[in-house]
Design goal:
The protein is mostly helical. The chain has one domain. It is built from 11 helices and 2 strands, in the order ααααααααααββα.
């Protein structure tokens, strides 16, 4: 008899397949856009006056709880029409939380012009996926920005939503995506959001804590099947440098990537002209090369492939 764990594994496999087939088609309203509009409305109403931490907590509960309940009841209502219809929508919901195809495409959009020495276009494309200033970056810094972004987003764009989908199906995966969207919209440590976004930022840290460490582990396991990677250096670098990252989770996949490639990530970034220094991660064996973007995308794929293979093996036990 098929149990709930097995069902979630099958749903994850089909959701990944759907992501590869259609990605995020523009003609379908993406759930994250709807979540984002809800956040914007409530933020405009509640992020003022006193008690902003409490109001921010209410925002977190409202958005995350509302997302979970909405998806849960939609699937329950569809099941009353036909169980297959509910399963199809659950596959779509999980797929919408995953960004495997989108992350690969974003990296490719930077890689292609960079290979052709079209720095203007490469900087522009990088600017779509990073918050730092990109208008004057030299090629190695364009590569670094892309590598860091793909590595870090392997957690919240791939492994985390799959992890939560495994535990709770589409409702929990969408709830995770709501947490992640909240963090990206209000989880800033500036005057406007430091109190109001505190609960959202901490919740995002908690939601990604286990998946981030799994991501680094899955990348390393995948490296066993790829020649010429510095996998023992990667273990040393990860345990030494992951904690240097300003995020309690982002450093794990970034440090692992730096270690496997034998490069150094981190360093000086500019945000609206203001210089910000991020601690360096990795041991310098060589300079960053344009092909490191392709290698980082490979690690991203390797992480979810290892995760899926582990799940499949568990279903066979």
């Amino acid at each position: 008899m098929i149990d709930l764990f097995d069902i979630h594994v099958y749903l994850i496999l089909l959701a990944i397949l759907l992501d590869f087939l259609i990605g995020d088609p523009k003609w379908i309203p993406h759930p994250v856009i709807i979540i984002g509009k809800g956040i914007s409305i409530l933020e405009g109403v509640w992020n003022k006056g006193t008690n902003r931490k409490i109001k921010g907590l209410f925002l977190l509960i409202s958005i995350v709880g509302g997302t979970y309940l909405f998806v849960y009841f939609v699937l329950e209502l569809l099941a009353l029409i036909h169980p297959i219809l509910s399963l199809l929508f659950e596959i779509y919901f999980i797929s919408s939380t995953v960004a495997i195809k989108g992350l690969q495409q974003a990296a490719t959009d930077v890689l292609k012009p960079l290979k052709n020495n079209d720095l203007i276009k490469a900087r522009k494309k990088l600017g779509y996926i990073v918050g730092r200033d990109t208008h004057d970056l030299p090629p190695p810094e364009i590569v670094r920005g892309t590598v860091e972004t793909v590595a870090e987003n392997t957690v919240d764009g791939v492994i985390s939503p799959l992890f939560w989908a495994l535990l709770g199906g589409a409702p929990l995966a969408m709830a995770y995506r709501a947490i992640n969207t909240l963090d990206s919209m209000v989880g800033y440590r500036n005057e406007k959001f430091i109190d109001f976004g505190w609960a959202s930022a901490r919740c995002d840290d908690l939601a990604n804590y286990v998946p981030a460490r799994f991501t680094a582990l899955f990348m390393w396991i995948f490296s066993l099947f790829v020649p010429k990677l510095k996998r023992w250096n990667a273990l040393k670098v990860t345990f030494r440098d992951a904690k240097k990252h300003p995020s309690p989770n982002g450093g794990w996949p970034e440090a692992m990537t730096a270690g496997l490639l034998g490069v150094v990530l981190g360093g000086e970034n500019k945000y609206e002209g203001i210089v910000s220094y991020r601690a360096e991660m990795g041991h310098f064996y060589r300079k960053l090369h344009v092909w490191d973007i392709r290698s980082t995308v490979l690690f991203m794929h390797g992480a979810w492939i290892v995760f899926v293979l582990i799940l499949v093996c568990l279903t066979l036990i």
